[in-house]
Write the structure tokens for this entry.
Amino acid sequence: IDLSVTWLGQTMPGCLYNASGVWCREEDELEAVRASAAAAVISKSATLHAREGNPEPRYHRTALGSINSMGLPNRGFAYYLDYARRYDYGCGKPLFLSLSGMTLDDNLSMLRTLAAAGLPAIPEINLSCPNVPGKPQLGYDFVATTEALNAFDLAWPGRYGVKLPPYFDPAHFAAMAEILNRHPRLAYVTCINSIGNGLVVDVDSEAVTIKPKDGLGGLGGDYVLPTALANVREFYRLLPGKDIVGCGGVKSGREAFMHILAGARAVQVGTCLYHEGPAAFARIAAELAELMRSKGYRRLDDFRGKLRTL
Ligand SMILES: C=Cc1c(C(=O)O)[nH]c(=O)[nH]c1=O
């Protein structure tokens, strides 16, 4: 069974890696992901300067997944750039640097600095952080997204990716695809970020579960799997020549299989990784391989994008 993935001009040894934000804020976490069965590594979205993030509690687990309003706590761009300078690219696992500047200028500044460093690390600009009070998700503003992508193309000479929020309407899939297809060096999109601004209520305490935004936070886990799969499948159809990274609701080989069937090139693990740790990657990969074996598939291309309709 071959779980390897060839994209972005390289072949990575498997198809699973971490969702940005999970197990990737500190260098020891990043190195633990790289040392695991994960096939790639992506860093916590960076802002130009380090941030404490929102007040705690800001993460809560439920039986069906998670809610978070972390508020972009991160060590600041220089920390992740330094890690990227020292990263062992020879390990065959690509390093992605997630960027989520507080302003377009901050994103451009980070991209220009990264370009000047001339590293193999691939930038992924986050268009979808739902948890910075007062900051709407860029990916829901088509004018701002157009302006940002045009600016990214000027600031960054190579291939890049974007992290998209979930969309829920065919008109929005079409509008976003029309924008994204104007950018040939936009090589891939990661679908989806958390479903923003959900509210989890604790019946016993009659209270919300997280402090920021009076309890509103991004949903992950089982809650988001159908929405994630829909976004993967719709953008797989609408973005010919671009890759889709699937993210949302992956906790076993079965959900990873679903994402790839829907068209995902590679698959990220967030909520499940938060709770199980990097051992999750070997488990999920083994489950995916067993599922493929039971179906007579030998490699991911045997079934990628072949979700049947009725
Ligand atoms: C980058 C901020 C994000 C955060 C956060 O730091 O609150 N949480 C998410 O679920 N998605 C994000 O994109």
Observations:
- Residues 21, 45, 68-72, 100, 126, 128-129, 131, 193-194, 218 surround ERO (CB under 6 Å).
- The first helix runs from residue 27 to 35.
